[in-house]
């Protein structure tokens, strides 16, 4: 008998991650490869996180603390919320899936931008919801249009800030105007995976809405500036009520024990975060200048990556860069996204791009 698969699942394509370094090494036999494809921290994990892993590994025969109590307590403390407002995730990705499963009935709508984190659409479809896609305006979330897209069936509204893949930001005033229009039956999801990199003083205080009891959730991750992408750990800050529903669909041991322990240590490593932020700020400006010198106009970025139009087949440029040992991200058409790496890696990227374009 043929497999019977729901049409919503049939319509999905598997997520294509940034090419791993080892894979490219195997394929091309290159020794020096620069991966600027997944917005990881080029300085590596927090040394404080690394230091606790060996000890934490001694208890790997035990299940993790299913409530991630110590980590959640530290996060509640840090963000001045109560313990029941913190929800752990196997990466913040997982919480997006939990939101879809907990709050979408078949046909319910989720409003999102057309060029944003691809996981929103994937999880909404997998939960048999309906993505309502609102085009970016000048590369930024068009919050006014997103507010207009809300209907009685809207359950979720995703604000990726700064936005992946564009790096652009929406500010406090724009979010305030949005929040004045969002009805109670919709949850606003502020995905702030890159907020630690944002320098704009008008970056919105999204957590303030949660604290005032609005139906909102703030998603944060240890995968980016904290340098722990391989461990899979993130969290959500929300109202106790929303957290309660998320806990009903949360897999019992979703945050593994090494990740919980390392995240706790990384959270206390302000030095690593400050160093990472400072390096990104300098290097972002350098890569931007390098791209501008090559004739490109990257969008303004508040994150650790730049998004730009190469003005020709982006896939071909991506492939040519691969052969030069540089992995970037082809988004679609002529658009590429490049993560800010170490100074030497950024130089190598700009040199490789120049070589590729000169052919
Ligand atoms: C990287 C990223 C995440 C976090 O992913 P994890 O699952 O925590 O590794 C979430 N949202 C956006 C927009 C991202 O780019």
Report what the structure shows.
With 359 residues, the chain is α/β, with parallel strands linked by helices. It has two domains: 7-44 and 271-358, Alpha-Beta Complex (Aspartate Aminotransferase, domain 1); 47-267, Type I PLP-dependent aspartate aminotransferase-like (Major domain) (Aspartate Aminotransferase, domain 2), CATH 3.40.640. 41% of the residues lie in helices and 15% in strands. It is built from 14 helices and twelve strands. The strands form three sheets. The chain has a seven-stranded mixed sheet, sandwiched between helices. A three-stranded antiparallel sheet has the order 9-12-11, covered by helices on one side. The protein has a two-stranded parallel sheet with strand order 1-10. α4 packs parallel to α11, α5 packs parallel to α6 (119-126) and α5 crosses α10. The longest helix is centred in the C-terminal third of the chain and has 24 residues, at 270-293. It is globular. The termini are far apart. Bound molecules: pyridoxal-5'-phosphate.
